[in-house]
Design goal:
mainly alpha; 0% strand; single chain
Length: 78
């Protein structure tokens, strides 16, 4: 399955993972959620910061650009 095909299922996975968090609670993930998402605490914090700072419009375009350029892992080493 290609990266493009994984996006929809990944969104649904994260909706389930974050489903019972409301409002400001979505800004902090507990260790159990971080582990079930297979993120490091640093990566989880960074992902939440990216989502809050840039939102889906900018990140959707960044995702499309990274897929077009075949950039799977970025320079930050996550």
């Amino acid at each position: 399955m290609s990266n493009q095909e994984n996006i929809g299922s990944l969104v649904e996975e994260y909706r389930v993972l974050l489903g019972d968090l409301d409002g400001p609670g979505r800004t902090v993930l507990d260790p159990e959620r971080i582990q079930s998402a297979e993120w490091s605490p640093r990566a989880a914090e960074h992902l939440l910061d990216l989502a809050r700072d840039y939102g889906s419009f900018m990140l959707r375009n960044a995702l499309a650009l990274s897929l077009a350029l075949d950039i799977e892992d970025g320079e930050l080493g996550f």
